[in-house]
Specification:
single chain; alpha+beta; Peptide Deformylase
Length: about 200
Amino acid sequence: MGYRSLYTATIVAIAISIAGCREQGTSFTDLEKALITDSERIMRVLTVDNEADLQVLRDSSTEFTDADLRSEYFSRLSELMVTTMQDSPQEGVGIAAPQVGLSRRVVAVQRFDKTGEPVEVYPNLRIESLGGELKPGYEGCLSVPGQYGIVSRYQEIIISYREVKEDKAGTIRDTVRGYTAVIFQHEADHLDGLIYTDKADSLLF
């Protein structure tokens, strides 16, 4: 339909654009800002069965500047990613920015290892090390609807991410274990253009 065609064209433009007008002090392009500000409560989740979507999902993501992280656009994007994940009929427990059309290094993850199991946002996420047992487990993905697989993941990891508060900024490191560590590995793969099906021991339909 018309709306889908327009949205797909926008996604393709974002995927191939490496320049364009940028707000002074941030690296957000006009296309990225439009995608963020035009979304009301949730964003469309890109899927592997759409060629334009797949192009974005296969891109490597770029980092945010500290100015980006202090901007209204990042704050809004964070909110949208969380509500999009929680609104999913697949009961999502994590989401990465490429899944909503932005090739940027940020994920939202439900921290099952913390009291209250909060959903938290991690900009410029990197996995510093992998350790512990390599254990197979079931995985699904909001971008691969109707399919599941068995993937072997490490059970203890060290992550790093950027934290910006007022005039302070720094890189934070955290050790994550168990199922939450699996979620981080799944979402970090998205930031490098990988999908869980690339690593699956077997696929279940």
